[in-house]
Hints:
The chain has 360 residues and is of the alpha+beta class. The protein has helices spanning 6-34, 100-128, 146-150, 169-177, 230-256, 268-280, 283-301, 309-322, 328-359; strands at 39-54, 60-74, 131-133, 138-141, 157-161, 164-165, 184-190, 193-199, 202-206, 211-215, 218-220, 224-226.
Amino acid sequence: MLSFGIFEIIVSFILVLTPIVFIHELGHFLVARKNGVVVDVFSIGFGKEIFGWTDLHGTRWRVAWIPLGGYVRMRGDENSASGNSKDARKLEGSFANASLLSRVLIVAAGPFANFILAFVLFVGLYVGAGKLFVPPIIDEVMPNSPAERAGLEANDRVLKINTNNISDFNDFRVFIFESPEKPINLQIERSGNILDIVAVPDSVYLEELDIYAGRLGIRSSTGEFRKLGLLEAMKESRHECWSITVGMLRGITRIVTGNAQLGEIGGPVRIAQFSRDAALQGLTSLVFFIALISINLGLVNLLPIPALDGGHLTFFMIEAMIGKPLPDAWQNILMRGGIAFLLSLMLFVTIYDIVRGMNN
């Protein structure tokens, strides 16, 4: 049987997803209005409307029954995936009638808003709750560990890993975690000397995550937890957003190249489970998780898949190159194909998440 509270998971999932979707769609909405495009519907969720209202500009704001996303439907859109209706390019105030630059800005505004949300949330966390700083210094090397076999020693400072500069021990830990049984190149400072060392982390199965992770066999030095001023918090937030984005890009690359583990792939059910775990750990963990998922949503939406924002941006790139839009019929066919692909993928990962939950 599933070992988690269904009610807790549903509530946590809604608490995490709703603000992320709202900010994403608000990005589209605000830039659309700024560029003279009429927004007919602003929906949180899909399906039948639970409640809603119409503002003075004629936009219908609605909350629907299926909390798995949301959309803004602009004038001339045939559906929530922004496929063009017949004669959409002739409609005043329609998305299709807007300039190419306006359409690019409107579409890109959604993912951009997700990155802004994450940035603001991290700034709030670091100012209000603080941030743990752990220098990338090895405090202890475990006996008979990969670290010992590689020649690492206590008090070594890690400068680089695979050409990436390391400023915090957590950055080092992430690379180790992602590299089970894979050689990693380390640049170490030891007593004023710079050394190059190759280490191969052990592979350890983590049942909770259903993945094999790397373990080097080291402990970090003592860190310092402190609240930050606004400017320092903004600097650290920018670094955090960048590190998370790069890490997610590495994960997407593993999936595309077929090198990802099944445990790295998750859908709404797994996000809901993690949302519940984060909520139970407290407000700080929940806010951090919301920021993490917001970056994930922004990044995934930029993938060049029809029906996603990245698919629209790809169409616009083609339009810029050939000097005219792709025919609406082609775009709508590709959009339907993209929707079918995404729904099939969601069905697969949902079934996989449920089976994984029943087996744990």
